[in-house]
Amino acid sequence: MALRNRTAITQNILNQENTKNVKSTINPLPGHARRAALGEIGNKVNTVRGAQPIKGSSLLPTVDLKKPILKQQQQQVKVDKVSGPPVQVVKPVVKKDIVQENIKKIDDIKQNEYEQQIFTDVDCNNKQKNEAFSSDLLEIQDIDEEDKGNPILVTVYSNDIYEYLRKLESIYPIDKEYLNGQEVTPKMRSVLVDWLVEVHQQFHLLQETLYLTVAIIDRFLQSYRTINRKRLQLVGVSSMFIACKYEEMYAPDIGDFVYITDNAYHKTEILQMEMLIVRTLDYSFGRPLSLHFLRRYSKAGSAMPLHHTMAKYFLEQCLVSYNMCHYSPSLIAAAAIYLAFYLLGNEEKEGRVIWTPTLAHYSTYTKNDLLPVVKEIASIIGDADTSKYQAVRKKFISSKHLKISLRPELRSPVLHALANNKE
């Protein structure tokens, strides 16, 4: 019993010493006495998020936590705690909102009146346009619509490009019967071009190279009028040599042109003639080719490969003919595609219009503009079988060119009637 009492007294002494050694982990506020441990549990906590603890928390007004507290109300609360009891806060009516609403209504009314005026003007303009233009122009199709997504075809600039080409062909014209008074005759020129068609085919050159070669020859012979018959072949070879440099990715060597002439001319002679041609033409070789316009017209007319190939056959036959030199490339191309459409589908029998408003729009030529040229081409094609110049006809016999020169339409009474002005 004495042992149990001694143990209890010892335990009581230790508890009193531990209580004296315990220090509060909470720093007291300045001006406040130290509180016992865990005494802060009884402190009242400010329920407003972001507000500092305030003395006399019983003065705080009742706050609805579901509604946001404005800064103006918070400031009002602080003032009320100092001056006296809380004052009911009344939100003032702002006249600015009413003014803005009135201004907005006025703007809406003006906008509606403005839009109505625009629609009225548009309707008037459309009515005037419909009255001004004929119904045929409404049938014009946008042939570049399907290609607008292809950046390679630059459809945005297509019409401007062809308008520029038409200006160029007027800058570099070829006069009618320009060989008058020269030693070189039209027959010599036709023989030269017929031979160059064979050379072009043997070298496997681009189509543009042949057209540019003939254009260089005609422009040079028109400007430099002292060429004799012995140097005419040299002019042709040098012109093709220049055209290859202009159009081809890999131009033939000058030795190939010496070989093709059977060593009739040396390299130095070809180079000297090349410099003479370049200086005479003032380094200008950008005259458009009829092949450029033909591609555009075939697209505008929705031509099939047969129509396009037949039109190319007509164009190459026109290269050989001296009587077709003075026509502009765009006009010859338009006449060629018209004749191809005419022969492969007679408009009188099928009751359809060949030269549609779309073709007339993109070519800038009417049917009456084309008919004289169409008749001359028909005359050339009608005599192709009996002509002395067979290079183009033999070229288009191959299956590569769809054997166009063997087509029965080229020997039909329709073609002869057109050539003889009996349609």
Automatic annotation (TrEMBL):
This is Cyclin B. The keyword Cell division applies. It comes from Aphidius gifuensis. One of its GO terms (cellular component) is nucleus. One of its GO terms (biological process) is mitotic cell cycle phase transition. One of its GO terms (molecular function) is cyclin-dependent protein serine/threonine kinase regulator activity. Residues 288-410 form the Cyclin C-terminal domain. Keywords: Cell cycle, Cell division, Cyclin. Belongs to the cyclin family. PANTHER family: CYCLINS. SMART domains: CYCLIN (SM00385), Cyclin_C (SM01332). Residues 194-279, 292-379 form the Cyclin-like domain.
